[in-house]
Write a structure and sequence with these properties.
alpha+beta, 10 helices, globular, eight-stranded mixed β-sheet, about 450 residues, six-stranded mixed β-sheet, about 30% strand
């Protein structure tokens, strides 16, 4: 995510850096390998792991009404007499488990399900739900919002950190990644875009159009995208990689240069970090009251006309955050620090200021006059600090300080190895520190403790 909204506290320093560069669980024993999410402890359910979401959405832009069918394929990690899914606000009308009607109830953003037959540990099972209503926005602990936004010509749905449950019944934690197939039915003349490849576009007898998208690679729920609106859906290629891009007609001119740079950016980041991790790419640019960009998997969304540095940032997230995902939200540095440093290094390699020059200018500013040293990026402390400016700027400075300590070749080798060894999985900061020690041959734990976990200027 790259933020431009005053609702997010990262605003002022991110603007400065850009300028510098370019000038509840179910009863029973929880699965021990999945500790509770500390920032959103009610999110998710540790009793199962999802492998696939099959989602069918029917949306009426004029009324804002959404009718949804969600089929979830999962495996129980413990015996389940009951379990829960995350879903905010919408009215559930039917639930079945393995084809049998199941009892269900609602409570505090949950659908609580009691299957007709208890599920044994290790067993695969499927859950089908029907629900409808007017999806809503979700207010984050820092006061900003995500979830489902109605727009003048449709809607935008984004989910970081927990907003996807505004329209999708899901296990809404970053560690539980799954494949997605998303069908979106909308009135004729309106485009509907999601993650991955466009599988089909089918006009129904009603005159409505069903758009079918498929993202087979594991995806965290917060990276799911829905964009419904006007514009021309453009298909292209980066080599053999297909791309689909939808730009709101009001933003075509202002965003053209940045969006047209995506092939160059993908090729450059692929040389640095290894092959692009997904089977499709592209962009969505829409007019929505978001004021930020988000690295929705395979197809980032920009709620404004982006510049090139923003596209570099969100594309870097396809490796760091999307392919290699967090175990838990306090490890957000592994996403935002890496993407921000990539901005700096891209500029350095394309005629801009070097990452070291950016680092030096930021470092020599008096700590009393900056807002990017606290909280330490290795653990923001509270959910309201997830997108604190320190996560981005001090986070990127950590990688640049590491580069100065061990050299550019070793840093790039660490980042590429990280993206390769954890491809399509989840990992945490301790694993990154262990990798840095191994690749560099140096004891770096003290270095990382100073830069990631101690308050104040290192």
């Amino acid at each position: 995510m790259l933020i431009v909204s005053p609702a997010r506290r990262a605003t002022s320093v991110l603007a400065l850096v850009t300028a510098l560069v370019f000038a509840a669980a179910a009863p029973g024993a929880p699965a021990p390998e999945h500790p509770a999410e500390p920032f959103f402890p009610r999110g998710g359910n540790r009793g199962y792991e999802v492998s696939h979401y099959g989602v069918s959405l029917d949306y009426q832009p004029r009324s804002g009404l959404l009718d949804a069918r969600d089929v979830i394929e999962a495996r129980a990690t413990t015996g389940l007499r009951r379990f829960s899914l995350d879903l905010y606000g919408l009215k559930v009308t039917a639930v079945s488990v393995d084809g049998e009607p199941a009892q269900y109830s609602r409570g505090r953003g949950k659908v609580k399900v009691v299957p007709a037959t208890p599920i044994l540990a290790g067993e695969p099972f499927s859950v089908a739900l029907r629900y409808h209503g007017v999806p809503r926005k979700v207010i984050d602990p820092d006061g900003s919002t995500e979830g489902w936004y109605r727009t003048s010509d449709g809607a935008v749905a984004v989910g970081e950190p927990v907003g996807t449950a505004a329209w999708l019944a899901c296990d809404n934690v970053p560690r539980d990644k799954a494949g997605f197939d998303i069908e979106i039915t909308v009135p004729a003349g309106v485009k509907a875009v999601s993650n991955g490849r466009l599988v089909s576009r089918h006009t129904l007898k009603s005159g409505q159009v069903r758009w079918s998208w498929s993202e087979p690679h594991p995806m965290a729920t917060y990276l799911a995208l829905v964009d419904i609106g006007a514009g021309k859906l453009v298909q292209g290629h980066v080599g053999k990689l297909p791309t689909w891009t939808l730009v709101d007609p009001r933003l075509v001119k202002a965003s053209r240069a940045a969006i047209d740079s995506l092939p160059e950016i993908i090729r450059w980041e692929s040389r640095i970090y290894g092959p692009y991790p997904f089977s499709a790419a592209g962009s969505v640019v829409d007019v929505a009251n978001l004021q930020y960009a988000l690295e929705t998997q395979s197809r980032p969304i920009y709620a404004f006309a982006p510049n090139r540095t923003t596209v570099v940032h969100e594309t870097a997230h396809q490796w760091f955050g999307d392919s290699v995902s967090l175990e838990r939200w306090p490890n957000i540095w592994l996403n935002e620090g890496f993407a921000t440093w990539t901005q700096w290094y891209f500029a350095e390699q394309h005629g801009g200021r070097s990452a070291q020059q950016v680092f030096a200018e930021l470092y020599r500013r008096p700590a009393s006059q900056t807002g990017f040293w606290n909280p330490p990026p290795g653990h923001p402390g509270q959910a309201k600090n997830l997108f604190a400016v320190s996560t981005y700027v001090r986070g990127a400075m950590t990688l640049q300080a590491l580069r100065d300590k061990i050299g550019t070749p070793d840093l790039l080798r660490i980042l590429r190895t990280w993206a390769t060894e954890h491809r399509y999985g989840n990992a945490d900061i301790e694993e990154f520190i262990a990798l840095a020690n191994r690749v560099s041959g140096e004891p770096l734990r003290g270095f990382f403790h100073r830069w990631l976990f101690e308050r104040g200027k290192p």
